[in-house]
Amino acid sequence: MTMPAADPSPAAALAGLPRVVDLLAARADEHDRDATFPYQGIEAVHEAGLLTLTVARRYGGPGGTLADTVRVLAQLGRGDASVAVVTAFTLLQHAEQARRATWPAAGYRRLLIESRRGPALVNTLHAEPGDRPGALPDTVARRDEDGWLLSGRKTYCTGAEALAWMAVTARTDEPEPRIGTFLVRGESEGLEIDPTWDQLGLRASASHDVVLDRVRVPADLALGLTAPGATGSSPGGDAELSGAWRDLALSAVAVGVARAAQAWLIRFLDRRTPVDPAEPPATLGTLARHHCALGEIEARLIGAEELIEGLAPRVDRGEPAALARTGPAHLLAVRAATAAVEQAVSLAGSPGLSRRHPLERYLRDLLSSRVHLMPDEAVLEAAGRAAVERDARP
Fold first, then answer.
1. pTM for the predicted model, two decimal places
2. Which of 55, 135, 232, 346 lies at a 20 to 30 A Cα distance from 101?
3. What CA–CA distance (Å, rounded) separates 24 from 14?
4. What is the pLDDT of residues 19-43, one digit of tens each?
5. CATH superfamily entry for domain 10-119
6. Which CATH number applies to 140-226: 3.30.200.20, 3.40.630.30, 3.30.530.20, 2.40.110.10?
């Protein structure tokens, strides 16, 4: 079960990044304005070998690490945040398979074959309308002689209209329900995309609802069925490591967006002259007061990048202390990226809020990325609890 490539290495995939970023940036405004899915952008990511960066070497893939992944996603975020986020979730799926081989051999072989032919996007569908912490999923799997029939609604399904596979969390209808992940083909009968995504930003991400009405899933594509609260055999048994990958991957996208905003601002200031005749007859970009403000943006982004790029290799090495820090790191990185873009908008003045320029889109994309984040209070409560437990020891 392999996917042959001319040069299956992370370095080969990374070499194509600059051209891909330029292609994404050229179409990002159009897709944002029309809320259309960026099929061409995803195709460009695929053709560069970036969409399968984290396929394990034992499957013939590059075997990209988390450090490789954050490097790629930060660059894609500069081009189009929606494409970067959609790519991130597919990379996370392949990385999970590389670590734990949760997909059955035949199912993953099919995904790899599809990935050779064209973009094969994958995402986990977990969120539901009205989610309650600790509650069982409302999506139900009913057993019949041929496997399972899935019914329910999932929300915030990034890339929904273009997903080749969906890993759907559901509970069984057994007297003692079990929870598991059901692998569903995107073209399955009984599956419908409800175009509910109409957010401020990430408008091209097609994060619509997915409605399942007795969608058939073969028995061998039901993964990790366990009683609620059980550990060990569940696909989420390494939830901490999966969470660390997700935290840093999505942080990298946010910082990439902020870097794009910074680059636009610098070009903008370099073309503008002061309106005050008392100011020197030079561009705004040459003035010390703007250098100071740009330095503040640079400092924020350096801090976020050092945090992400420092933790990623440590997670790759399996350091427990690094795993425990990715949640707060995500929060800090996204806050830094958002603050940097807000400051860029302030420095640009009215043009920064004009739809003629991309700066306001960068801000909207960062604000809408919160749909993928843990609530701030949940991250901070966990960090505070861990600090108390650590420092309260005699």
1. 0.91
2. 135
3. 15
4. 999 999 999 999 999 999 999 999 9
5. Acyl-CoA dehydrogenase/oxidase, N-terminal domain (1.10.540.10)
6. 2.40.110.10
